[in-house]
Specification:
Two copies of one chain form a homodimer. Helix content of chain A is 26%, strand content 29%. By secondary structure, chain A is α/β, with parallel strands linked by helices. In chain A, strands 3-4-2-1-5-6-7-11-8 form a nine-stranded mixed beta sheet. A two-stranded antiparallel ribbon of chain A has the order 9-10. In chain A, helix 1 packs across helix 5. The longest helix of chain A has 14 residues. The radius of gyration of chain A is 19 Å and the shape is globular.
Chain lengths: 252, 252
């Protein structure tokens, strides 16, 4: 297969290059990735300034383009200009999980959603440990998954958000199809004073995992399974919309 | 009411200041907004560098904080530090619509979704014309809407994405509860060569509006109604998840 790879940790990141190495055993791989880290960049795109592209010779397993943009930019420029008509688009391997509300902030997931909007089978993949990611394990899983999964079943505007537990490949119990959970961050800010007397703030947070849903994404990972969540770009709260529609319309 | 205002066009933008002026007639308004334009920034947050805050004396109708961050940062820092426990969070008025897949890229909508995740009634508001927005009309609508709508009905993790047609307030026909449509951009890139011989690319695009859904957000606006779409942070494609669950599980 012809695979377009991107990520949000930047073109030189270990997760990306490890995945390229593994996938290149069986596939043609082209990397289009941000020149610098773009974590937590969400689904940003670059519309007011142009995008520069540089070809880098940093990987023997794939052609590598570094661009001055976001993961979503990489996918747009990738499929439009640099590597047309890939068979699959993969964003990752991210350093750390993209579970629960992480999905909303994730540059990795946005790369895959952009691919889905462009009409290609698209996957986001993360090694679910911030401190000790295990890229080899996630890369081996992806190589296996590409052989096993029927991508033609993926509906339009939908991508797969894959989180691989950071354990050796042999110990992974399998995969589970899951639902994006309510897992979230409780933020707080630490105020400091800079050398010029101005107050500045660091954003910090703790994870809260209290979702009752047995299909919650993070539970699969906790139990040693790969979590695979189908995510779409449509955010409508359908049940609330139904309720709103019963309200008396105004001025109609 | 105590209203926290943010936006993605930046703290000095006309849409934001017009809304502050109108709302201040009946409410206490505090602005926490990005110091520079952050359009199409998606749901980015600032986690690797700190955030600076500056109080600006640029508006007689509201206290104004300018911060070196994104709309999502503004809401987090707003409710945690600068203006605790607001009754409502409003993001806007955006210059131009946030309809269909715009929602995914929109800094304006992400401000409201961040507010919803923090547990506050949260609204995104846009004047639905890129070239000729009509902020007075949208601001007057918002003042009216705040009086009429029961915010306690909004479920957790859900915000309202409001698009006001850019026509005089008197000509607005009312409001409709709608669904996020498949309205999308067909992108293309224009390549140029910079004075140093390097190729760079501008992202350009055309809007495609071909959604058959009678409840499509953009149709309400086209017909002279305010479009109100309840949007949530949960992206799971439920119908596809159901289908995937029927597939034979692997290694389980």
């Amino acid at each position: 297969m012809r695979i377009l790879l991107t990520n949000d940790d930047g073109v030189t990141s270990e997760g990306l290059l490890t995945l390229a190495k593994y996938l290149s055993r069986e596939h043609e791989v082209v990397i289009v990735a941000p020149e610098s880290e773009r974590s937590a960049v969400g689904h940003a795109i670059t519309i007011h300034v142009p995008i520069w592209v540089k070809e880098l010779k940093i990987c023997e397993h794939a052609k590598v383009y570094s661009i001055t943009g976001t993961p979503a930019d990489c996918v747009k420029l990738g499929v439009d200009v640099l590597f047309r008509e890939p068979d699959v688009i993969i964003s990752g391997i991210n350093k750390g999980p993209n579970l629960g509300t992480d999905v909303i902030y994730s540059g990795t997931v946005s790369g895959a959603l952009e691919g889905a909007m462009s009409g290609y089978p698209s996957l986001a993949v993360s090694s679910a440990d911030y401190q000790n990611p295990l890229y080899e394990s996630a890369a081996e899983f992806m190589l296996e998954f590409l052989k096993s999964f029927d991508f033609s079943s993926i509906p339009p505007y939908t991508a797969l958000n894959i989180n691989v537990p950071a354990i050796p490949y042999e110990r992974i119990k399998g995969w589970r199809f899951t639902r994006q959970s309510k897992r979230r961050w409780e933020d707080y800010f630490e105020a400091r004073v800079d050398p010029f007397g101005r107050t500045y703030y660091w954003m910090l947070g703790n994870v809260i995992e209290d979702d009752e849903d047995p299909d919650a994404d993070y539970k699969a990972v906790q139990e040693g399974y790969v979590s695979i969540t189908p995510v779409s770009v449509f955010l409508t709260n359908e049940s609330y919309l139904k309720k709103l529609k019963t309200l008396e319309p105004r001025k109609e």
